[in-house]
Amino acid sequence: MNLMDLARPAEEVAPRLLGAVLTHETSEGTVSIAITETEAYSGAADPASHAYRGMTPRNAVMFGPAGHLYVYRSHGLHWCANVVTGTDGAASAVLVRAGRVIEGEDLARRRRGGMAESSRLARGPGNFCQALGVTAEHNGSDLLTGASVTLSEGEPVPASLIRIGPRVGVSKAHDWQHRFYLAGDPTVSAYRLSPRAKPSHGA
């Protein structure tokens, strides 16, 4: 994975990240997860984006250069990891929703409280971060420099396996077709419509 692959709009990068690998090296060991599900979020044009109303201390990383990690707390419970995309100054990021653990499964399982089923270790954005060991301290990490959290190329994903659908659990612009996932993969999270969702029009 290189900067040229990421310096594009989020909706173009999101399907390209399927099959890519996020790796986190710690004193406990190394966990690598191949990405199987993503969602694209833009800036001012996307009502569901954290950057919709402009830059804040929370979302500042989204406005920075591509290839960095944007980590935020969801509902005060779970950490969520996003790969920053696009050009410097224009907010854009891809939420990593799910993946398949390909290295360090025992460590990922311990982090997930002894979860037995392999396909559920990194299913859902909160579980993905928990299995990978990513928290707020990794916000802003450069994924391309070989630091503790890195993004790399994985096995190529055939275009025939990529499916597109509406985003999960958001109340605004929920019907935008900005969710990308691998067909039939057991690690992909189930689609869930927010009870607060209202019909919208857009990308």
TrEMBL record:
Q: Which UniProt keywords apply?
A: DNA damage, DNA repair, Hydrolase
Q: What is its EC number?
A: 3.2.2.-
Tell me the Gene3D superfamilies matching this sequence: Methylpurine-DNA glycosylase (MPG) (3.10.300.10)
Q: Which GO terms describe its biological process?
A: base-excision repair
A GO molecular function held by the record: alkylbase DNA N-glycosylase activity
- Give one Pfam family: Pur_DNA_glyco
Under what name is this protein listed? Putative 3-methyladenine DNA glycosylase
- Annotated family: Belongs to the DNA glycosylase MPG family.
- Family annotation (NCBIfam families): 3mg, PRK00802.1-3
Any coiled-coil regions, as ranges: none
Q: Per its UniProt record, what InterPro entries does this chain match?
A: Formyl_transferase-like_C_sf (IPR011034), MPG (IPR003180), MPG_sf (IPR036995)
* The organism of origin for this protein: Streptomyces populi
